[in-house]
Write a structure and sequence with these properties.
single chain, mainly alpha
């Protein structure tokens, strides 16, 4: 019974923190003129940041550089590789995963970035908004909430 109660509390806290973080990014995106702050992959980042912040995949370096690297791969493929979209998408996802592992910045939700970038046909500006600025906001909130509010050891050293 204790495990069920602890799991329920963990789920409630993760859900509330995730909704709040994505809510802030959504307000910045849709209620201001500052630009786009949402990427679909950020939703899956919430699982790691608020349910499993101790995971190596949830650490700030991995979240930030995993998203940046895979989005960059997607932009390069979308802008410069003249193959059919289905080939570009599959190869870009593979290259993005290869580079995350090579540079030790694996963040599984970022594996979807090349798909979204290629399908949308975005430019390098997408790397600034939403990827860089959105990631900074996500991580700032994750650090404040996990460390100061929930008293968790995040980021893990």
């Amino acid at each position: 019974m204790k495990t069920l109660k602890a799991n329920f509390l963990k789920a409630v806290i993760a859900g509330i923190c995730s909704a709040g973080t994505i809510g802030i990014l959504a307000v910045l995106t849709y209620k201001t003129t500052f630009g786009i702050f949402l990427a679909a992959s950020f939703g899956s980042s919430m699982v790691l940041l608020f349910a499993f912040p101790e995971s190596p995949f949830a650490q700030p370096k991995n979240v930030f550089f995993g998203h940046l690297l895979t989005a960059l791969v997607g932009v390069v493929f979308a802008q410069y590789i003249a193959l059919p979209m289905y080939v570009n998408i599959s190869v870009a996802v593979g290259v993005g995963i290869f580079l995350m592992i090579l540079f030790n910045v694996v963040h599984p939700p970022a594996g979807g970035n090349p798909i979204m970038v290629i399908v949308a046909g975005v430019s390098y500006e997408y790397l600034i908004n939403p990827i860089i600025l959105g990631s900074f906001i996500m991580l700032a909130l994750a650090i404040v909430i996990n460390k100061l509010v929930l008293k968790k050891n995040y980021p893990v050293r």
